[in-house]
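Sample entry follows:

:::
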Amino acid sequence: MMRFIRTMEEFRDDAITTAPPGKKHRTMAISEIIHVEPLHEQVEESNHFSSITDDEEEIETIECTRSAVVDAPVKKTPPPMPLQTYIHLNADPAKRRKTLESLRPMQLAMARRFIRDRSRFLDLAERHNSIEIVQTAVGGDQTAIQFINEPFTQANRTVREVFDAVLHSSLNIEKALAEANYAHDTVREGGIWNDEEIAHHRLVCSTDEVREDGEPLSIDSNSVSLTEYDPVEDVGVMVVRYVDHDELFPYKPRERLRRDVVVMLLVSQEDFGVVLRAWVSTRQRRSSYFKVADDAMERLRGELGQWGSYQLHSVRERLGVKP
């Protein structure tokens, strides 16, 4: 019988070595990479690396075992959140850019490794799209976890061509959502850069729902995308991560619901052709300032697991590939 559960000793063997600027190298345990979302792990503005907790609890399963269990039951606590780093962006454009440049190499390296672990037991030549909905025990926030494996075996495309389509979709996300017939209007409210390596997306989505006080319900989303194409290995990697605190574009919790998005995407060349793999987490937060009826939240939940599908639709359209 194949053993899917790995021991902590195996995790230590697979650890990643890193060093904040000016400090000695240290070993980063996998428990730091795949970790339930504690907001006390924050990036210090001096070095932009996440702080480390002393506790090393036994890890019974990791996300890669999910590739062996497609129909996982609904859970009451969120699954481990990869790339868990508290992102605080300064109002000064130069400092904002420096923060993200310091995070970029490690985030992309961890994303590449995570996606490969997550898809270890999948047949990459076959399409795969799984969605899991979880709800936090406190607060009632809901999170959709989606994993996509999309082979482009019939498209005769290169990794660079597919990854360029991904970049176009990401850099024009509001247009991509419109092309995919997303039910709500999405507008870009702010953003300083929009280049291939680092981009910032502040989006506001209007909905057909209303708050219990009768006001229209809108959704706030603030994220950054970090990307890289590696010509040596011929792979494209993208990380999209929500911003925790933004001094220039602060969240408006008294007016809008907040939606947090995390995306890890890998485009690679396999024996059979090019394949796109993506892990998408979309968290819909509840508000502590105004109430939204449960049935309205339920309707919003129905669209949470479609974020990755909307972007995949845009990529296919860009490449002229039929579903």
Observations:
- Residues 106 and 185 are 34 Å apart (CA to CA).
